[in-house]
Every structure is written in C-alpha cells, then in structure tokens.
Structure prediction request, 1089 residues.
Amino acid sequence: MPSSLSSPIKPAAEEPPAVPSTRAWHGLPLDPLLTLAVVGLGIASAMTLGAATREAIPGDPGYYVNRQIVYLVIGLILMTVLARVDYARLRQLKYPIYALLILSILAVLGLGHETKGATRAITLPFFSFQASELGKVLLILALASFVIDRSRRLRERDTTARVMLAALVPAMLVIIQPDLGSGMVYMVIAFVLLLVAGAPWQQLGGLVALVGVSVAIVLVAAPALGLHVLKPYQTERLTAFLNPSSNFAEIKEKESKTGEPDPRYQLAQSKIAIGSGEKTGRGSNSTQLTGNYLPEDDTDFVFAAVGEQYGFLGAGLVLCLYGLLISRTLRILTMSKDLFGSLLAAGVAAMLMFQVFVNVGMTVGIMPITGVTLPLMSYGGSSVITTLLAVGLLQSIYVQARASAALKGRVPIY
Amino acid sequence: MSALERVRPSWPISDDRSRMPVSPQLALRVGALGVLAMVMFAIIFFRLWYLQVLTGEQYVQQADANSVRDLPIAAPRGQILDREGKPMVSSRVTNAVQIVPSALPPAGAPRLALYRRVGALLHMSAQHVEALVVKGRTALPYAPVTIKTDAGRGVLTVLAERQNAYPGVVQQPVSIRAYPYGEMAAQVLGYVGQVNKEELKKPAFRGVEQNTVVGQEGLEYFYDHYLRGEPGVQRVQVNAAGYPEPTRLQPQPPKAGYSLGTTLDLGLQREGEKALLEGIENARAGGKPAIAGAFTALDPLNGEVLAIGSYPSFDPNKFAKPLTETELKALEGKGGGEETPSRLVNRAVNGAYPTGSTFKPITAMAALEAGVIDPNEALGGGSCIEAIGGGGEKFCNSGHTDYGAVGLVEALKVSSDTYFFTVGELANSHGNVIQNKARELGIGEQTGIDLPSELTGTIPSRQWLVKQNEAESQCTREHHGRRCQIVAEPGEPWTVGYNMDLAVGQGSLQTDPLQMAVAYSTLANAYLHGGEGEVVTPHLGRQIDEADGGLVQSLSRDFPPKHHVHLNYPDLSDVMQGIHEAASQPGGTSADVWTGWNQSQHPVYGKTGTAERAGHVEQSWYMCFINDPKRPIVIAVTVEEGGFGAETAAPIARLIASRWFGRPEKFVVGTSKTF
Prediction:
C-alpha cells in the first residue's frame, strides 16, 4: 500500500462492506440536494457567462463559456471521485498538505505571471493555476487536522493562537500577491473551524476584537501616521461602498488624472447593471455587460451579470441555490460521523458563506470590493475546481456518514 | 467539555477518537452559523429587491444613458438655385478623418505619440490635432471630432490598412458644402461653418445643436433656417470604451434642408463677374489701380436681384473645411504685411462710396419738383463757378471744360458739373431738397435686401452736420482733447459748398451700388407708370422648395415695395431724356460705349460717374436703366480707383446688358472724361 490515496475508489476501506444493504446503498454515492445545488449553479454560470462574454473575444463568442463548462465538468468529475475517498485518510497527510499550500503560494510569488497588477497564478500548459484558490481547500484540510490533533486541548488559548497562526502564514503570503480576498477567506476559515470545534467564546470574541482593531489601524490610524499597510487602491476598493458615486464624468476625470481605475466606477456600474435588471431581467437587451461597462463582469462581478440579464427572479434563484448549498453544508456538518468531517464541513461552509456574501454584497454595494470570487459562478478554473473539490469533501463526509449509519442500522436524517 | 462527554456514550464508538455526536454546543454554534447565513441572505435579498424592484426603473434609465448616445446626423443642407433652378450651391459627400476621444490611448506619452502620427499623416502639428480634440470634446463630449475633411485617398488608405497604429482614429463619410462656381457671387451666397458659442445665443440659431454646420454669411446665413434642415438622431449604443456597438435602435433620419430658389440669373451672374474682371483688367492695363469693384443688376419693377457681385472675391469652398489663421487673414486682406482689399466684403451692399455724377438725375428730380430750377433754364456757364458764400472755393468741370450755360437735358447728357453745382447752390436756400428726394428714392437708408448686412449710407444735410459736430466734440472730450476726425473742421456750420458737392454726388455722400440701383429703379418704374413709382425692395430670395423640388413657399410677398412715390411726369421725362441722350446721342458721356446698340429696341438711360475720393484714384461708376417690355433691367457698376465712369464702369455695364438681352458681347471703352 504505497499511499492512502492510491485506491481512492474504495471508500471506507477499513470497514469492508459486509452487510448487503450497504452495497445497495452505494448505488447513490452523492448527496442529491448538494449535487442539485452545484449543478444548478454551474448551469447558471454557463448561461450568464454565455451572454456576458459573447463579445469579449471577437470572433469567438463561446471562448469563456466553453472553458467554464470544461472547468465545471472537470470539477464535477473530481467531486465525484473525491466523494468516494474517505476523507479521514487525508488527515494523515496534513503536513504534506500544509507544505503544498505554502510552497504553491511561494511558487506563484516566484514564478507566477502578472495579471492586472497582481501575481496570483502560474501558467501551466492548459491552465493558469491560481494557488490561492486551491489553497482554500488545502488549508481547510490542514487546519481541521491540526484542530483534531489538539481536540483535547481545544479550550486552551494556545490552540486558538496556533490555529490562527497556521492560517495567518499563508494568508499573509497571498495578501502579498496581492490577493486580499483569499487571505481574508483563510482567516475566516480558521475562525469558523475554531468556532465549530468549540473554542471558548471569550477567545473568539478576542479574535473579533483583534480584527476590528487591526482594521482600524490599517485603514485609519496607520495612514494618518503616514504608514500605508495597504496600497491606496486597496483602501479605495475597501471603502468605495461607503461613499458611492454615480457621477461618471467626475470619476473618469479622476481616473485620467491618477491613471488608476476608480473602484467607485465599477461599483456604480454594477449597481446599474443589477438595478436595471428589474424583476425579470433585460435578457439580450443587457447593455452593461455586452457594452463592457462593467469590468470583470465574468469573474468578480458575475452576479451583476446575473442581475442584469435575469433580474430579481434570476438573481433570487441563484441566491436560493447558494442557500441550498450552504444549508446542505451545515446539515452535512451535523451529520458527519466524526469531528474531523464536521470541521471540514465547517471550513467549507466558512469559505462558501464568506465568498457568497462578500461577493454578492460587493456587487449590490453593501460590502467592500475585495477580490473574492463567487463560487461556481465566477469564470475561472482554479476557483470552480477548488469549490467543487470542497463540495467533493462534503460529498465524502455525507457518504461516510450514510455508510456509517447504514452499518449501524440507522437511517440518516436529511 | 462536559457536554461532549455526556453525549459520547450514546454515539456508536469507532476507533476514531474524534468521533463526534451532535452535541448541544455544536448545535448552538452551527445554529449561530445558520442564523448568520439566514440574516445575510435576508439582507442581500432585501437589497436586491430594493435595487431591482423598488428602484429598478431608475437604473434602467441610467443604463440607457450609459450606453445610448444620441449623436446628431447632420441634415443635408438645401441647395441654392438660380432663378431657373440651376444649382449654384450644393453639397457633396466626402470622407472626414475623425477622432473618437474616448477610444484614444491613455493620456500622456501614448496619446501624444498618436497625435504625432496623425499629425504627420495629415500634415498638421501634433499640437493642432490635440487642440482640435480638446475643443471638440468640450463642445460635444461623445461625438467624434473631425480632424480633417477631404483628407485624400492616400491618407484614408493608410488609416484603413493600419487601424492598429491609429487607435481611436476613424474615417466617416460627411457631406460638405460645394460651391461649384468657386468665387462667383461668393459674398452673396456666403459660406458655412460650425456654429460657435456666440452664434448659439442668437435668435437666428435658436434650437440649433452644437457643432451643427450653419450659414455664416450671405444667403447661407440669411436663409439658414430653411437651408439647414433638421438633424436626425443616431441612437448609438456605445460600450465603455466609447466604441459603437451593433444596435437595433432605429435612427431618426435627418430632414433635408429646403432649397432656396433665388432671383439670380446664373448666366448673367457669371457674365457680370467676367465683365467686371475684364473692366478691371482693362483699367489696370490703362494704368489705373482698379483695386476693387462691384456690380448689381435689378429688375426695376419688382426689385429682384438678377446679378450681384463684388471683386475681389474668395472661394467659399475653403470654408467648407476648417480654415487656418493665415488663410483667414489673407481673405480679410490683412495677410502678407501689405493691406489688400478684403475679399469677404460685398462691395455691392457694403461699400460706402460717393457716387459722382450718377447722382445727378436725383439732384435734377429734386430741384425740378421743388421748383428750384426750370428744365429749360440755362445754367452753369464757364469752366468753374465760385459759390456765393463758398469762401472763394472754386467748383470746376472735369478738365476745366466749358459746356456753356445749358438746359437740364443737355446738362445731364454732357454731365455738366457747373450746371449741377449751380443747382446745388440754388437748392441750398430751399432746405434739404436734394437730401429728401434722395432719401425718397431709396438712398441713405437700408434697402431691406435679404442679406445679413448692408450699408445704411449717409446723405449730408444740416442736421447730419450738427450731429457730426456733436459726435466730434463728445469724442474729443472722451479722448481728452484729441480730435477724432469725424468732421474735417469741427464746429464749422453747414455751408453751401456741402450742398454743391452733394448735387454732383461728391463730398460726404456715402452710398453703395445697390442703393443707387434702387434709386434708378424707382425712377425707371415711375417713368414706366406715368410718374407713379415704387421704391422696390431688392431681394435675392424667390422661393423655398422641398429638397426634391416641390414648392414650399413663395417669398415674393416677403419683399413688398418700401413705399410709393409720386413724381411729376414731365419733370421725370426731362430727366430720363437727359440720361437717355447721355447714353445714345453724340456728345453724351457714355454714347460711344453703346455704339452699335439698338437703342430703339432697348433704349438705354445711363449715367456715368467719376467719384473723387481723397487719397484715391477716381472711382469709376455707371448706372443705367435699359427698357424692355418684358425684362427691363437696372445695372449699377462701380470700380474703385478705376478712373472715369465711361472708360471702366460703363463698358462693364454694356457687357452685362448684352448678356441679358442676348446681344453680341462687346467691350467698348468710352472716351468721356467727365466726373
């Protein structure tokens, strides 16, 4: 047996399926609702990108949507494969996984190519690999394992500090790229893992206070003292939603003066896109997207594209699919046969919730602009596949929980 | 973790120490996550509902404003036609090089580099290109800025083939004004240009959008309202970069401008210009400077302007494209150091000239009607006369010729200055006899012609001199004692000399060929109607037509006669006989010019004039009325510094008349050396 991953198709290898009923149950190896949610979001993504990027590359209207579908299919296959792997085995690989996390991020910093001023990805022959995205799943696995290792000392401040530090190292590395959004996702994952694992409220409260103080220092106190922790454009992006402007003439003038894009432009255009969708959307009359008014309408601002094309109905439906995805994640968290599974699910829940709320909140103008993708909807292989890998973990937890319950003669509750 | 331990026994134990039931604590914490998720979903749903359902309409408007730009489509300007419908001004389609400001490379070095490339291609400086873009952008932010019209095939090919090297530079078919006859009647037809900020404030340009091409001068200006049409609206859907996108939006097509049918006769106009030039060249050959000139031909019965021209002229086609500073200065006659006569001035309506002897028929009419003279009374013997109270000043005939004491008819025929000096002297004691008659016949007032500007003119009188003196003293006060030269001798009272000068069309009299043509028309139509005459309103507009030809409205009623005049027919007959003999009988001042002319078919009533202007060579004048039952004509010709009336102006008038009546065109120089 070279490695626990070498026989991924045989789940729960330590528990040979002796009972016939288990075999019959194995015919349905995925959570149907969870699968419904991700497939639905995948379809929504393809539909939205199809229109939004129709004229992005002249002569090749399907460029982005075709690639996105390929990423979705690859991701779904990986998800199905991962569903049959016993996630518990991954715990033993926690150090290699953590090392992979750190090294891949360092590799991007060293070897990566620059896109729009940020070095976030390594270009592979067929794929531009964004380490910070995959890092989210790797971090969930590593942190959950660390927490389990210290499951008897969960109330100790030391545990909380170590877990947070373990997340902070990769977070700082991706923030340097700069990918502030992913860094924040890492910290949120760590926080939610601690929350679910049962860290004391005082310590969690302390962490929240620490974050509040840090934000105050970074955004207010340090610049006042002449020390700029964040680049000016990052600060602008974070605070744009607090002072929106729809005076494009003024914004454009400022841009031409500074030579930097003003995030308020993107924000205002995003709100126009969503608002103009009204109840049922503008469909092919959408002008914000095809007219390229909204930068990044295929990636970070894809929700605005949904809102414009399909209106409140479409955007609401997409939100419902996310609601289903997140509620299923939380359900699987409670279903898990062990704490490790629960913690993995908690990490995935943290990742999904943070990304969905921050991203959608950003497009509707109630959250800061951070480079957080909308899981499954945003164009991009790394994001799509990472999310589906995370969902694969959830499927695996679900499968294991069902198998375990079946073995014990229990019927799991949906 | 008491909760954890208490629950653990109930959960099936596996080998894994982390096996975990749903403890109350976990339930609480997961529940907290769930509640957080629900709250967040609720907030986002509410926000979406607010944006899309409650205020969605507002965003639809913003989105439309964002992407749909209304760009005006220039309406094809109406043609200007001659009286037979032949086009004198039309439009032609050509390509313009335009810059789409929003699609330009970023400000700074890359954009400057582009301006340099474009400049090199179009033979312009980069600064000039930039200035045009900045100007255009301020005027109409989203519209492309025209950099050069009619750039030439080669340039357009380069632009088309090397699109990538010229981001934001496009070529666009545009309609530009074409004046196929170039300099012909240029001051009358006018020219066009983009409306400027000051013009937009004028009532004439109410409702005109910025950058619209409007008439700037002449008929183009006066009838701009009809000619310009209504611009259409191209509803362009543009993307954020400012490039147009394919769109289903229907453009609102422009409404072509109406055509303006004029009273001008293209053939006569061309002949008139040619004749004027010929006369000027002839005068120059004879050693006269002949720097400028003008002519007009009217129908004396209704005031229709049959031809009108001014020399030197300009090519209005130059204004169809943006003009450089130097080019404009050259047209205004200010370029090249030495002042040359402005090409833009229409001397037929804006020249301010004394008229010389062509004024004499007016003096005669005035004196006869007021009873100052009797037509048969012989006056003005000797070569010079000295005015009573004229301060010893002598008033002489040209070349000190002595015509003897003659009657009115003979005096007009030979153009005796001494006779008319005497008339002026006699009339002085009767008040403003000559002045009033001149004004009654149409001199010293605007004629009401349908052109943007015309001279008012001056008829010197006692009241006029009082006002001039007042103006002079006020001006002197304002300039702290420095004299303003409004009058030659400030404070001096009216003297008989003024009246004597006026009687022969000299002194401070200032009028133009058009006013003189109106005065002669009044005499002519009164003569044809037994003394009941009308002061016609000269006009160029005849009718307004649809672009495709249908009549929209006739303009003939827009120019009613200014007023009716009753002239004593016997007196008028004497005057007309005098000037007819001048043009037809041996010894008449212009008789030799009309050698070979069929006077019985087309009798010529013509008067030469030679106006003296201080510091200038004499100005040549000729006024005539040629009768015809169907197409009578009044012709006025003047050539600045052209010498005697008979030698320069009269032959030009004959050429014009020949053309009008289809006679062989002959340039016959007269020999009379009279003023």
In short: Chain B touches chain A through 53 residues (CB under 8 Å). Chain B has 23 helices and 20 strands. Confidence is low (pLDDT under 50) at residues 1-20 of chain B.
